[in-house]
Design goal:
The complex is a heterodimer of chains A (109) and B (116). Chain A is built from no helices and eleven strands. Chain A is an all-beta fold and 109 residues long. In chain A, a hairpin with a 2-residue loop joins strand 6 and strand 7. In chain A, the strands form two sheets. In chain A, strands 2, 4, 5, 9, 10 and 11 form a six-stranded mixed β-sheet that branches. Chain A has a five-stranded antiparallel β-sheet with strand order 1-3-8-7-6, with no helix packed on it. Chain B has 116 residues and is an all-beta fold. In chain B, 0% of the residues lie in helices and 55% in strands. In chain B, 34% of the residues are buried. The chains are: A mainly beta (109), B mainly beta (116). The interface between A and B is medium-sized, with 20 and 18 residues.
Chain lengths: 109, 116
């Protein structure tokens, strides 16, 4: 089945820094989502981005479907950006989300 | 986008007891899902609950341990039965909604369960 790998696994930054999180997937996909899980456990939808580029405030994402990767950019990090960022793709075989292991981001004040 | 609520938000339960988690969605949805997230891990799908049919369980999960109800298009329950400390996890309800550009999945706030 499809494999989803995220990097880096952990990232510690000072407030105000920029960061790039990566998601690689092993097969072509028609559906890719980025989520932020805050320290209280809630999963927040960031982007639905099977291809192309989207921006929402300080966050943007780019998916290059032909090269099987997606990038999440966070600019001018704030402490509220801390948490775990997950990438998930929809499997064409069983129509379920396949999850990466996540990137744990800590923003220090 | 769907707005999902779950009850309870957290609970501490004793070994051998059962807990029922409720999931309410603000719109009618066909596909609802229940996930488990063990500490420090990614999400694992427990089952898919479609209204009017039996839930479909993933490998490693059985109906006797995780019975699910789906009485209508906006509500579902997951019961964690005969709990053990290994069941301590966050349990999340999720729905999938389609649009012109594809299917997007949304999650409830989760139920944080601790079994002692």
């Amino acid at each position: 089945g499809i494999q989803v790998e995220q990097s880096p696994p952990d990232l510690i930054l000072q407030e105000g820094a920029n960061s790039t999180l990566r998601c690689n997937f092993s097969d072509s996909v028609n559906n890719l989502q980025w989520f932020h899980q805050n320290p209280w456990g809630q999963l927040i939808n960031l982007f639905y981005i099977p291809s192309g580029t989207k921006q929402n405030g300080r966050l943007s994402a780019t998916t290059v479907a032909t090269e099987r990767y997606s990038l999440l950019y966070i600019s001018s990090s704030q402490t509220t950006d801390s948490g775990v960022y997950f990438c998930a793709v929809l499997s064409d075989s069983n129509y379920q989300l396949i999850w990466g292991a996540g990137t744990k981001l800590i923003i220090k004040p | 986008s769907a707005v999902i609520s779950q009850k309870p938000s957290r609970d501490i339960c004793q070994r051998g007891t059962s807990l029922t988690i409720q999931c309410q969605v603000d719109s009618q949805v066909t596909m609802m899902f229940w996930y488990r997230q063990q500490p420090g891990q990614s999400l694992t799908l427990i089952a898919t609950a479609n209204q009017g049919s039996e839930a479909t369980y993933e490998s490693g999960f059985v109906i006797d341990k995780f019975p699910i109800s789906r009485p209508n298009l906006t509500f579902s329950t997951l019961t964690v039965s005969n709990m053990s400390p290994e069941d301590s996890s966050i349990y999340l309800c999720s729905v999938r909604q389609g649009s012109q550009i594809g299917y997007e999945q949304y999650f409830g706030p989760g139920t944080r369960l601790t079994v002692t």
